[in-house]
Amino acid sequence: MANGDMSVEQVRMLADLVGISIDETELPEVANRFASLMQELDRLRDMDLEGVEPVTIFPDADGG
Question: What ranges do the domains of the chain cover?
Fold first, then answer.
């Protein structure tokens, strides 16, 4: 997977591995969206987050 590209065949194989059914006609769009997601994740990886405190997105059962 070079430069965030995700081939239709790779998406098909990943879907099979995790047991997700994707219609053949939708595979190109799924591959495109997956590649876009991976590019955004790469941007996050490149950010300097030194000293940034984590934020709780999902509260505990007690609301904290």
Answer: 2-45
